[in-house]
Amino acid sequence: MLACNATGAGRLGTTPDAMLGRMLEDYIPDDLRNRRHDVLASVVATATPATFRDARGIHIFDHSLYPITDETGRVHRVAWLAEDVAHEVALERQLRQAQKMEAVGTLAGGIAHDFNNILGVIMSNIEMLRGTGLTGRAATRADRILRAALRAREVVRQLLAFGRPADEPYVTLDLCRTVADALHLVKPSIPASVTLRTLLPATPLPVHGDATQIHQVLLNLCTNAVHAMPDGGLLDVSLETLDLGGDDVLRGYPELSPGRYVCLSVADSGLGMTAHQLERMFEPFFTTKPQGTGSGLGLSMVHGIIRKHGGTVRAHSQPGQGARFDVLLPLADMPDTGTTPADIAPATVPDMPKSPPLHVLVVDDEHDFRQSVAEMLHALGHRSTGTDSADDALRLLAAGRYDVALLDVRMPGLSGPELARTIRERGFALPLVVCTGNECDITPEELAEMGLTLIGKPFTGDELSKHLHIALKKA
Description:
By secondary structure, the chain is of the alpha/beta class. It folds into four domains: 6-84, Beta-Lactamase; 89-163; 171-330, Heat Shock Protein 90; 359-474, Rossmann fold, CATH 3.40.50.2300. The strands form four sheets. The chain has a five-stranded mixed beta sheet with strand order 5-7-8-10-9. A five-stranded parallel beta sheet has the order 12-11-13-14-15, with helices on both faces. Strands 1-2-3 form a three-stranded antiparallel beta sheet, sandwiched between helices. The protein has helices at residues 6-11, 16-19, 30-46, 86-130, 136-163, 175-186, 211-227, 246-252, 275-280, 298-308, 367-379, 390-399, 416-425, 444-450, 461-474, and strands at 50-56, 59-69, 75-84, 171-174, 194-199, 206-209, 233-244, 259-268, 312-317, 323-330, 359-363, 383-387, 404-408, 432-436, 453-456.
């Protein structure tokens, strides 16, 4: 060793002066010695530079070796540069994960419209079939079909969440209370063979977020934990605060900024996971569960929700030693109101009184969906007229009287929002309901500007009835 800078010596646990004259092998760990020695020997023998990468602990090093020759061309010195690239590697991994999420969101947005039209036909027809007085095995089969369609609708909504921008109006809420409320919902589904233990601080832990989404995060993590313990075990849920400095962020959480965080931990004593499973844990559609028992979207949803909240999630596990998921959320300032943060109840559609008989104009380019909605409206006691084009819809409005119009957002020619704007410009004041399989197709500003009511495809008869009532109340 002829020279070493202070950083390199410090990483090796010594000083530059102490390294002078020593053999390089004295500072190379046994598990890395053979490879590094081979590369060095090759550089000396061929007088050719070489690069390679290896890792030690949390450090990942990119090595560059440059031969220095004398006047005869013989290599008599080698300049060895080592750069710790752990931070860059972590950022690359985060970027790949984000790109996967974005790709799934883009794909979901492309298929959601057509797929939800198909689901809408299935759901509406099976609902009407159930209303014909089915009994016995036929009724059981109809119920099974409807449950499957509703589950498919939820899968599509989860997929769409990946591509949805993080523009939700978050509120300040107490994570302790939010977690406690969520656990009340989780407890009934935990088998007696699993013991739930909680460690929640008595003092509030304020964060900016959406209580419903955090409930979903905890539900997914607890459900996965229970599934990982088929023979029973321990399920631990805890909250604590963390102060992350610059070095902590640099080494362990490159996607975060230094500051104070709340750590929600969900740990189980179950089967554990391999390193390969951990690497892919948050990928959409990746699952460790048997085929048919999981969509592979639960942990991807957890990842997406927490990232939109400005936090991150980490998984720790080894085979046979259980697993622990740590969710980090930025700690918010306590509201200066003299009260503790409160969870905001999710907006729900209340039960509505039955609407009087209506004449509904249904505008949708999908024939089967349009016919299914017409039959659904008939079952609700309403009358409908359907068309597949915006131009025909405008002619029908001019020629007759309608109580409300139901417009598909995506149509050839004029889209639903464009048709709604034209209807308003021509002086028609009837309530307008727009329906879509992807809520990102229309902005809240467009809805407010024209007084539109939004209903997501596919929908049940009850959901349609409630949204018609809401539209009538707006008018």
